[in-house]
Each structure stands twice: as C-alpha cells, then as structure tokens.
Amino acid sequence: MPGPAAIYTFLGPQGTFTEAALMQVPGAAEATRVPASNVNAALDMVRDGSVHAAMVPIENSVEGGVTATLDAIAGGPELRITREVLVPISFVLVARPGMALADIRRISTHGHAWAQCRLWVETNIPGAEYVPGSSTAAAALGLLADGAHYDAAICAPIVAQEQPGLSVLAENIGDNPGAVTRFIMVSRPGELPQRTGADKTTVVVPLPEDRPGALMEILDQFATRGVNLSRIESRPTGQYLGHYFFSIDADGHVQDARVADALAGLHRISPATRFLGSYGRADAQKVVVAPHTSDEAFHAAHQWVDGILQPRPGLPETAS
Ligand SMILES: O=C(O)C(=O)Cc1ccccc1
After folding, report:
1. Against a cut of 0.80, is the pTM above it?
2. Which of 53, 164, 223, 303 is 20 to 30 A distant from 18 in Cα terms?
3. Is the pLDDT of residue 306 over 80?
4. What single-letter DSSP state applies at residue 142?
C-alpha cells in the first residue's frame, strides 16, 4: 500500500458516500484525494498510473451489485481489488432554502440512492420525477448552479452540513434503515494483500457457451473444496445477446490451498477466468475451514500423489 504520498481517486465530488469509504482507509486523510466524475473515469486514472488506487462502490444491500463497477473491472487492462470497506448509508432530502416538500416535482440523485428511497418518495412526494445524477453529492451541488432543472436532491447528511446554500427537508429517508454499501479499493496488479484468515477472493468467470451444466460445474469447483460464496452475479458481456460472465466473491485467500485449487478448476472450465484479488474482509470474520479442506489436508494429498508418481527406490511398497 502506498504511504503518505499516496494519490487516491474516488467517485466524487466531495461529500459522496464513496468519499466516506475512502476516509476509512488508513492514511487517506493525509493522501491526495482526486474526485472523479464517474466510476470509469476513476478506474482509467488507476490504469494510466495517474493515481495509486481508486475507491468505488460495488454492492449495496438493496439493489445488489453496482453494475458500472462490476462491468468496468471485468474487462480492459487488469485491475486488482486490495481492500473492501462497508459504509452505513443514511439519506437526506435537500433543496434551496425556502422550498417546502409540497413544491418538489423533480428530484436528482445517484441511481442507487433513488432505489433506496423509492418508497419514501412515493409516500411523501407522490408523482415526483427522477432526474439521474452522477453521484448524490453532484446532484446536491447541482441545485446551487444557475438553471438547475430539478428542485431537490437526495444525498448524505454531510453535504447539507457543509453547504450553507442547501436546506434539509427530510432526514433518514432511506426505505431500509440498516442499509449498507460495500466499496472496494482498486489498484493495478501488484503485491497481493497479506492473508489474514478473514479474506475474500473475487473472480470473473465467463460462462462457456453451448456446454450444458457449465454453471453447475463452475459452482462445483467451490463446493467440492469447501469454499463458501458470499456474492454471485451474472452480467451480460456486452458482446452479443446471451453471452454472460459471473462475478463471484468467495471466502478465503488465493494463498489458501482450497481457493487456489478452486481457481485452477475454474481456469480449466473457463480459460478466460480473471482473478480480481484476495483481500481482507471488512468485518474481519475468520473463515471457517473444514479439516478435509485445510492447507494441511491439501498438502498431504499432493504429497500422497507425488509419492505415487515418484516412488522412492529401495523403500518397500505400502498397502495404500
Ligand atoms: O453517490 C454517492 O454518494 C456514492 O458514493 C454512490 C452511492 C450512492 C448511493 C448509495 C451508496 C453509494
């Protein structure tokens, strides 16, 4: 990980939930932080080497995967996830001073924020129209621009606290009070984060075509090695209709024998499988490993096979 001279980018501008996620990273407060206007722009900065790493959203508890991020890291020059961060999400509705709820017709925010506040909006501002925004903070700041074409924005409480030109019309408007979003730190391929025993591995597996049971075979690579999956999503590759890849999070580190063995199995089934990283779980929860899928069990099994392939001359044959 880069030190104090680190340069990080994030889905900006200042005041996004993604910035809050970045600020949880040790050393981020002292680092140079460059806002990006969308996820692709942030990842391009990583790929061209102008920043060390990017913080981007990947999954939320209501909408599931952030498709822009899943697709952007699945293709193009390889990137690696080095860390995950969880941020509890709470939304406020902001407008220019003097506006009341009854005046609001058009609301802008990030698509995921809209999805997480839909019921509240339907109940409290029936018929309100959604104006897509590149982020929650960008939507809120847009209200202050001349000729803003919407009346209110949904954003994080901090934006309203730091912008005197915005007033809060409603607080805690998320439909799910326990909503959490998962963010990932992404860099160019380099040293793997250390194995901690509480790790996750992310892979992208293109689904082989015209092969009955291919998905079952993919899942089986994990199941037979006792590797638990915490997320699996299918996404169209964008090449042509019906061509999909799977984005998968598995418990464990690629330095765990069972995970390495599962990845080797995936590669045999789908040679374009992409390794996106092994990194510590945000909740630091240790992965439970059955004895027959431990590193020791794999090591003993490999030694046994090696012994069969290269019998040592002079030793009597064993019964097994
Ligand atoms: O727009 C933001 O503030 C983001 O960081 C993206 C986002 C939007 C809604 C929930 C979580 C993350």
Report:
1. yes
2. 164
3. yes
4. H
Closest residue by CA, ligand 1 atom 3 = 16
Whether 26 shows a pLDDT value over 60: the answer reads yes
Q: What is the pLDDT of residue 318?
A: 59
Phi/psi region, residue 56 (left: phi>0; alpha: psi -120 to 50; beta: rest), is beta
Atom of ligand 1 nearest to the CA of 15: 3
**77/257 Cα distance (integer angstroms):** 27
**Pocket of ligand 1, candidates 63, 136, 176: which has the most ligand atoms within 8 Å of its Cβ, to mutate?**
136
Q: Which residues pair with 275 in a beta bridge?
A: 203
270 lines ligand 1 (CB under 6 A): no
- Asked whether the beta carbons of 133 and 206 are under 8 A apart, the reply is no
> In whole angstroms, how far apart are CA 304 and each of 245, 296, 300, 307, 318?
36, 12, 6, 5, 11
10 lines ligand 1 (CB under 6 A): no
Indicate if ligand 1 lies below 6 Å from the C-beta of 20. no
From the CB of 16, is ligand 1 less than 6 Å away? yes
Locate the ligand 1 atom nearest the alpha carbon of residue 137 and give its number.
Answer: 3
Do the beta carbons of residue 94 and residue 159 sit within 8 Å?
Answer: yes
Determine which helix (DSSP H) or strand (DSSP E) holds 123, and give its type and residue range.
Answer: helix 111-124
Whole-number Å distance between alpha carbons of 207 and 245:
5
Residue range 209-249, pLDDT digits in tens: 888 899 999 999 999 999 999 999 998 887 777 788 999 99
Total residues found in the chain within this entry:
320
**CB–CB of 85/24 below 8 Å?**
yes
Q: Which domains does the chain have, with CATH numbers?
A: 7-90+175-190 (3.40.190.10), 92-171 (3.40.190.10), 191-309 (3.30.70.260)
pLDDT of 194: 96
ipTM: 0.98
